[in-house]
Structure formats: C-alpha cells, structure tokens
Amino acid sequence: YYILLNTKAVVSTQSTGTKTWQLAMNLNPSDGHIMDFATGWTENKFIGTYADALSKDFLDRVVWNTQANFIALVRHQAGEADAVKVFRFVERGRSLLSRFQEMNPGRVVATEGGPIHESISSFAQNLADDPVFSVGGDLAFNWAYTNNGHRIVLTGGHLSAADVNDDGTRGIGNSFYCNPLTGEQFCSVSQHEISIISYPTSDGKYIQGSDHGYGEEKDGPVYGNYAIFVSEDAEKFPQPGFKLTLKVEV
Questions:
Q1: Predicted TM-score of the model (pTM)
Q2: What is the DSSP-derived secondary structure letter of residue 236?
C-alpha cells in the first residue's frame, strides 16, 4: 500500500474523457549504456527494445517525434512509480526531438508554472539529493555553459552561467566535456546519465549508478529508473504505486 507524502494538482478545465500518456524515454543509470548529453536525444533513432522499455535505457522514436503539450518525469522501481512530476510546456505542439535539437544557444526554460501535478510516495527513498524531486522550479532543456551540457535540469537548482566553467549544474543527460551547442562529446570522459545533487565535482561522488565515462567519476547509488512520458492533453498522472506501461490512461 502507498501513502502519499505530498500531492499537488491543478483542476483541469478540459473534458472528462480518457487521456493518454506515452512512454518516450526510460533511463537506467546502471544498465551499461550511457545516455549522456551526446547520446540519443537528437539523433532521431530508436534505442532499446519494447520488452526492456522500463528496465533499461529506451527511446521510442515514434513518440519522440510526437507533438506534446505536457511532460511527466516518473521515478520508478522495477516499473512501479514512486515519484511523479507533471509539467506544461511553454510552446505547445512540439516534439521532444525538436525541443532537444534546439541546442544553440540552448538554455531553454521549456515549461511554465512549475509542476502542475506532483506526488511522492511516503516510502520513496533518496529524495534529499534527487536531481528531479529534491529541486523546485520548471524544466530547462539543453543547459549549456562553456564545454558542459545537461539535457534536463530544474530551474530551482544551480544553473551555471553560460561563460562559467564550474561543472556545477546537475541533471539528466550530462557531460562536462563536450560542445553543448552541437551535441558533440569530445571523448569518453566526464559524461554520465543521471546526477546526484552533490558537490564538489572533483570528488566524483555526484553520479547515480555505473553509467558514466572514465576519469574522476565514481560509481554511485541508484535511486531508480527515470521515465519520461508525454501527452497532448493529460494534466495529471496516476499516483505512486501504479505499475507503469508503455501507455498510461488517466
């Protein structure tokens, strides 16, 4: 049984008919495949398999090209959701592919009004330094500064200035040694899939799991898989404890 730690939602003014979320991406920070800044987000190709869509890195090319007005970030344990945030995009009717291809100059605050729905299980662990659920604000895409890039960050966290090379931003789809305006990774160093909100960078203890490059990076704990769902019209998501599928109806 799940007890909600907190929940927030806005009342929809739309019709009460069924609405659908579609799984666009899943990230497992310890499956041996690194979805860093340079991998997958802009390449318009399928990654993974439907059979392992909620247990390994996965990108559905069809959904990635689908127009979306809402996005849900869902942390889950073996497919069972334990934390959810839903956001409304500023620009309606664009695909995730088009949004993540917008790299130059990047630094796009992609949603507005903060999370319009948020729910976290009282049994959820590792919330204090989670890169999504310990940080407030809206979603920003393609956060670029000097030779660093992060595909998804929250505006309530540390957002490095464009000309400051402090390796200080934490998020999802990360590189500290790339050209963030083109998406080119310079070599297999200083790249990782999912961050922990931890400083300084020099100790290497800011990474979830084992999916990272070589150098100062060290294997870290895994807080869960992180799934990205999109929808044209759904403003809420099932509560924690829900067993995820490729399509979720609300």
A1: 0.92
A2: -
CA distance to 8, 244, 246, per residue, from 51 (Å): 32, 13, 10
- Whole-angstrom Cα distance, residue 235 to residue 227? 16
What is the strand order of the sheet 108-109 is part of?
A: 108-109, 139-145, 148-154, 172-175, 191-194
| Dihedral over alpha carbons 99, 204, 53, 63 (to 10 degrees) | 0
At 108, list the tokens: 């796009």
Pairing of the two strands 148-154 and 111-121: unpaired
Alpha-carbon span 220 to 199, nearest angstrom: 14
Residue pLDDT, tens place only, 124-134: 999 999 999 99
The string of DSSP codes covering 150-193 is: EEEEETTS----TT--------EEEESSEETTTTEE-SSBSEEE
Q: HSE of 160 in the Cβ direction (CA atoms, 13 Å)? A: 21
Write the pLDDT tens digit of every residue in 213-248: 987 788 999 999 999 999 999 999 999 999 999 999
Q: From CA 86, how far away is CA 115, in angstroms rounded?
A: 5
Q: Where are the beta strands (DSSP E) in 78-224?
A: 80-89, 108-109, 111-121, 139-145, 148-154, 172-175, 178-179, 184-185, 191-194
Instruction: Work out the number of other CB atoms within 10 angstroms of the CB of residue 117.
Output: 22
